[in-house]
Design goal:
Strand content: 15-25%
Number of domains: 1
Radius of gyration: 17 Å
Number of helices: 10
CATH architecture: 3-Layer(aba) Sandwich
CATH topology: Rossmann fold
Length: 243
C-alpha cells in the first residue's frame, strides 16, 4: 500500500513530502540521493526490489524529500545557508517525520532504521548519530560523508558540525554517546565507477574511535555508484536484519 502526505514546515521553510510503502513490519526511513524526492526510490525500482519484504509484512518503507541535499548540490543561497539547512532538515526529520511514523505505526517510540545511498547515506548515518534515542540502525550505501569538499567554504559552521558525523561524533560524550554505543551503523560501498572506499573508512574510523558499533562492507570493483548496486544492497541487508 502506497500513501503520502505533504505539509509546510517552518523548520525547513517549505512544503515537503513523506511517502510510505507497506502496511506492517519494521519501519525503515530511506533518504533520497542528492536532489531526489520522496518517490525517487519507486521511480528507480527500489520498491520493486523490496517487494518480497514489503508483501510479507517484514518492513514498512518511508521516504522524505531530500530538501537539504537539493539545497546543497544546487548551491542555493550562501554556503552558510546551505550548512544551516542540513541542521534544519534533521530537525524536521526528528520533530516532524518521526512523530508521523509513530502515528502511522500506532506505536510511540517504535525503533526506526535508516538507509540511503550517496548523500542519502550521509543522512542515514547522521540521523542515528544525532538521534540514537529514535534511530537504532542504519545502512549507508556508497556514501559521501565529507560534504565540505562540495562547498565554497573551508570552515564548517556550528550548525553543520551538529549534523555531520565527521564533526559531531568526536565531540560526543555522556548519555548521548552511551546510547549511540548501543546502536549499529552498516557502511557498504562498491569500488567501481564513482565510488570512494576512503569515504566509508573515514566515517568508520570516526565511529570506531568513540566505540560506536559499525562495519564496512566493500562489494569490490564490479559494483558502481548507481541504482543497480543499491537495488542489490538494500534488500540483502534488510532481509538479513529481519529474519
Amino acid at each position: 500500500m502506497f500513501v503520502k502526505s505533504r505539509w509546510y514546515s517552518q523548520r525547513i521553510g517549505c512544503e515537503a513530502t513523506l511517502a510510505r510503502w507497506g502496511t506492517l513490519g519494521q519501519p525503515v526511513l530511506v533518504f533520497p540521493t542528492a536532489g531526489g524526492d520522496a518517490e525517487e526510490i519507486e521511480r528507480f525500482l527500489m520498491i520493486r526490489a523490496l517487494e518480497p519484504l514489503l508483501s510479507s509484512g517484514r518492513i514498512k518503507i518511508y521516504s522524505p524529500d531530500s530538501v537539504a541535499g537539493r539545497v546543497w548540490f544546487n548551491k542555493e543561497g550562501s554556503p552558510e545557508h546551505r550548512m544551516a539547512m542540513q541542521h534544519r532538515y534533521h530537525e524536521w526529520i526528528r520533530h516532524e517525520v518521526v512523530p508521523a511514523i509513530y502515528m502511522d505505526c500506532k506505536t510511540d517510540g517504535i525503533p526506526i532504521w535508516t538507509a540511503g545511498a550517496s548523500i542519502g547515506a550521509f543522512h542515514a548515518a547522521a540521523a542515528v548519530c544525532r538521534s540514537p534515542d529514535v534511530f537504532h540502525k542504519s545502512l549507508s550505501m556508497s556514501g559521501t560523508y565529507n560534504l565540505m569538499r562540495f562547498i565554497e567554504s573551508d570552515t564548517p559552521s556550528n550548525a553543520f558540525k551538529r549534523v555531520s558525523p565527521l564533526y559531531m561524533v568526536p565531540r560526543l560524550e555522556g548519555k548521548h554517546l552511551e546510547v549511540l554505543r548501543t546502536r549499529f551503523l552498516q557502511i557498504v560501498t562498491g569500488e567501481g565507477r564513482w565510488e570512494n572506499l576512503g569515504e566509508s573508512y573515514g566515517l568508520a574510523n570516526a565511529l570506531g574511535a568513540q566505540g560506536i558499533p559499525n562495519h564496512v562492507d566493500s562489494w569490490g570493483p564490479d559494483w558502481h555508484h548507481d541504482w543497480v548496486t543499491w537495488r542489490e544492497m538494500l534488500p540483502k541487508y534488510l532481509d538479513q536484519w529481519t529474519r
